[in-house]
Design a protein that fits this description.
- It contains seven helices and eleven strands.
- By secondary structure, the chain is of the alpha/beta class.
């Protein structure tokens, strides 16, 4: 007998109570994994398309091999797992502020946990990604790609502490962590935002806002997210 609902993990965190839940949808005949922070739903395994495309679109903007990638936000793991499908990637660091989320994957509780934690290229780091981007980078710790999926969008934040990341100064600080020719990519739940595209354009020579559409089985129609990709940092 299939359990209709199960709470797989729960933990108090500085941001609030975080929980991982699995429920079976009989209409779709699928298990759906969901993350809640307090009373707010953060993510669902029912809609991974744009998170996967974040990896593919971000890496498509980078040439060469032996790439080093940092992923801001582990979540359900779809972006990280997609990064590892690229043979050009030599090393991937995933940074998450919630050690509970990292623990879920180490315990292999999620559908894509195993390929992430068993790949020798993976390094999971418990840290504040936004604080990491504000730090002065070491010359030997630069990345070919920075991929970010943490806040709902540049305007809808999980925590006000990240607001500075979406300013010109914040993007300049992030770009300082890129190698020459590197790319910055960010997932957003909102439609393309001209104001944020302009912010990226102050720092990067090339900026694209990709609309990623996907089937929504809950509505029977289409939904869409945005993936911003920026490259050619002005220095």
């Amino acid at each position: 007998m299939i359990a209709r609902f199960e709470e797989l993990a729960w933990q108090e965190t500085p941001l609030g109570d975080v929980s991982l839940r699995r429920r079976h949808d009989p209409a779709l005949d699928v298990d759906i994994y969901e993350v809640k922070l307090g009373d707010e739903f953060l993510m669902s395994s029912l809609f991974p398309v744009a998170e996967i495309e974040l990896a593919h679109l971000g890496l498509a903007a980078v040439a060469g091999d032996d790439l080093t990638v940092v992923v801001g936000g582990l979540g359900l793991g779809y972006t990280a797992e997609a990064v590892l499908t690229h043979a050009r990637v030599a090393a991937m660091t995933v940074v998450d502020a919630l050690d509970a989320v990292i623990d879920w994957h180490k315990r292999e509780l999620l559908p894509v946990s195993t390929p992430i934690v068993t790949d020798a290229r993976t390094r999971l780091v418990h840290d504040d990604f936004f604080a990491l981007m504000r730090r002065e980078p070491a010359s030997d710790s630069l990345f070919d790609a920075i991929l970010v999926d943490i806040d709902h969008s540049p305007r809808h934040l999980l925590n006000d502490n990240s607001a500075g990341f979406y300013t010109v100064q914040g993007i300049r600080e992030a770009a300082a962590h890129l190698k020459p020719g590197g790319a910055f990519a960010l997932w957003s739940d909102d439609p393309p935002d001209d104001a944020y595209t302009a912010v990226l354009g102050e720092v990067f020579g090339t900026v694209d806002a990709h609309v990623v559409s996907f089937a929504n089985p809950l509505t029977g129609g289409q939904s869409a997210n945005t993936v911003y990709v920026a490259s050619d940092a002005r220095g």
